[in-house]
Amino acid sequence: MRNISVRDFINVTNAKLLCGSENTILGDFKKDTREIEVGDVYLRSKR
């Protein structure tokens, strides 16, 4: 997967940054907390 910045992610998904920097580069995305490793980004779907 291509690494993207938080800013790019916000622009594409209309997400909200709660803390941190928009310049942070995101690595791998996980949707299962049992698979998360250091540096991964956890995605939680809104229900």
How many individual β-strands?
4
| Biggest sheet descriptor | 2 strands, antiparallel
Helix content: 10-25%
Name the average pLDDT: 85
How many DSSP helices? 1
Structure description:
With 47 residues, the protein is α+β, with helices and mostly antiparallel strands. The protein contains 1 helix and 4 strands; from the N terminus they run βαβββ. It has a two-stranded antiparallel ribbon. The model has no long low-confidence stretch (mean pLDDT 85).
Question: Could you outline the blueprint of secondary structure elements for this entry?
Answer:
Elements: E1 4-5, H1 6-13, E2 25-26, E3 29-30, E4 41-42
Parallel strand pairs: 3-4
Antiparallel strand pairs: 1-2
In a nutshell, what does this entry contain?
With 47 residues, this protein is of the alpha+beta class.
Which tags fit this structure?
two-stranded parallel ribbon; single chain; 47 residues; alpha+beta; globular
